[in-house]
Amino acid sequence: MVRRTGRRFVDARLAIAACLAAAAAGAQAAPPGSPWGAGHFPDVPLVAQDGRTFRFYDDLVKDRFVVINFVFTRCKAACPMETANLARVQKLLASRIGRDVFMYSISLDPDHDTPAVMNEYAARFRAGPGWLFLTGQRADIERVRASLGDRSAWQNHAVGLWLGNDPAGQWTSLSAVDNPGFVAMSIDEWMRTKDMAHAPVTSYAEAPRIRLSPGEDLFRTRCAACHTVGGGDRIGPDLAGVTGRRDRDWLARWIADPQALIDAGDHVARDVFRAYQQRPMPALRASPQQMDELLSYIEARSHPAR
Question: Which of 98, 190, 259, 306 is most enclosed, with most CB atoms within 10 A?
Answer without folding.
Answer: 190
